[in-house]
Amino acid sequence: MQKRILLGAALLTGTVILLACQGADNNPPLETVPYVDLQKYTGTWYEIASFPQRFQKGCHCSKAEYKLIPEGYVEVHNSCRKDSATGKLKEVTGKAFVTDPKTNAKLKVQFFWPFKGNYWIIDLAEDYSYAVVGDPSRNYLWILSRNRQLDKTLYDQIVARTAAKDFDISKLKITEQSCP
Q: What is the tally of structural domains in the chain?
């Protein structure tokens, strides 16, 4: 069995950063979306739900802001409110690098050198109103939306598609977004 080191995505006070190690898994290959227009992907995304990570403990109102940088990477600015929707603002800025230029759906995110983690876009609305980000180990998952709330029917459909990709959806936790 092949040993895999995963520097996968986890929110650290609202920030994607990957620091976990994992052995080989028995999951089938994880498919990403066919193509991501990075210009359309830029802007603000709110975390609707995620697999909670110790790095994001106590986070409320988590969001990420993406901006294309002329030097060829995406600036990632993540933030959340610590311990409550009105708690202290926690922020961190990192970089995301496209690793599959054919699709732009596979990126590596770096918040602290030298660690980089997988950021794979595995579901994306045609109008870029929601996105699902995961990694091949299925240990990290985020459901993101352009709005603080997502329609319940749409959310259930997204969760069903994610479960079909062999993610353990029982680990999903809704993110509080009732922020002032």
A: 1
In 1-140, the DSSP E strands lie at: 43-50, 59-69, 73-82, 89-98, 106-112, 115-124, 130-134
145 within domain boundaries: yes
pTM of the prediction?
Answer: 0.84
Q: Which of 65, 123, 122 is nearest to 94 (CA)?
A: 65
pLDDT, position 42: 97
Helix ranges (H only) for 20-171 are 38-41, 152-164
Asked whether the beta carbons of 81 and 61 are under 8 A apart, the reply is yes
Q: Is there a domain that residue 137 lies in?
A: yes
The range of the structural domain enclosing residue 144 comes to 38-174
Taking CA 24 as the corner, what is the angle to CA 19 and CA 28, rounded to the nearest 5 degrees?
105
Instruction: Look up the CATH number of the domain holding residue 91.
Output: 2.40.128.20
Does a structural domain hold residue 32?
Answer: no
Spans of the chain, pLDDT less than 50 = 1-24
User: What is the pLDDT at residue 25?
Assistant: 58
